[in-house]
Amino acid sequence: MPRIEGKLRLGGKSGETSPKPAKPRQPTSQEVHARRRAAADAVLAELIAQFPTLFDPEHPRPLALRLSGELVRATSGSWSATGLALHHWTRRRRYLEALAAPDAQRYNLDGTISEPVSEEHRQHARDQLAAYAARPQHKRKTRSPRSSPSHRKGDGAQPGLPAEAVPDPKVTTD
After folding, report:
1. Could you report the per-residue pLDDT of 101-143, keeping only the tens digit for each?
2. Beta bridge partners of 63
3. How many whole angstroms from its chain centre is CA 104?
4. CA-CA distance, 54 to 49, in Å (whole number)?
5. What is the distance between the alpha carbons of residues 122 and 97, in angstroms, rounded to a whole number?
6. Which of 3, 58, 69, 96 is deepest in the core (most CB within 10 A)?
7. Which burial class, exposed, middle or buried, applies to 97 when counting CB atoms under 10 A from its CB (0-12, 13-18, 19+)?
8. Which residues have a Cβ under 8 Å from the Cβ of 7 and sit 6 or more positions away?
9. What separation in angstroms does the CA of 171 have from each of 25, 143, 166, 174?
10. 124-137 exposure pattern, b = at least 16 Cβ within 10 A, e = fewer
11. Residue 99 class from Cβ within 10 Å (0-12 exposed, 13-18 middle, 19+ buried)?
């Protein structure tokens, strides 16, 4: 259709314009974080499957330095997803414990020893472990009274009373 003065011509009537398409909704920061975390988790699962001796969750080995490029090529993840996966992996308590060990060695992807862990990196790992130990333990959240089964709608229970104390409307006493 021909354009006239920046307006789209509809049905032969001049001056009518088509409605503007709605702008796509921007994802919230929580949605973006969840999407990035899911991509990183997928890359980490792939790394664990491809390199089980290096990425063993129970007994991780310190990774060789500057390994991220090889890891991106070895997986289907992007640079950012692989970087985030490495970020999460290298900040795990067990990885830091392996890094802080006195005779720790760094390993290449093929499992060969790359180099010993430097004293500076061992000290950083010990500092991180000390910071983890100093943090208060997160208590598991307890269920609020509203979310407990006896306070859901439709079961006849009244807040503050046990379910047995609520009279059954079907039973009448004479």
Report:
1. 999 999 999 999 999 999 999 999 999 999 988 888 766 555 5
2. 107
3. 29
4. 10
5. 9
6. 96
7. middle
8. 15, 16, 17
9. 53, 32, 11, 10
10. ebeebeeeeeeeee
11. buried
Q: pLDDT tens, 60-98?
A: 999 999 988 898 888 887 888 999 999 999 999 999 999
Residue 9 has pLDDT above 90, yes or no: no
DSSP SS3 for 77: coil
In the DSSP assignment, the letter for residue 106 is E
Tokens of 46: 């792939």
Name residue 106's beta-bridge partners: 115
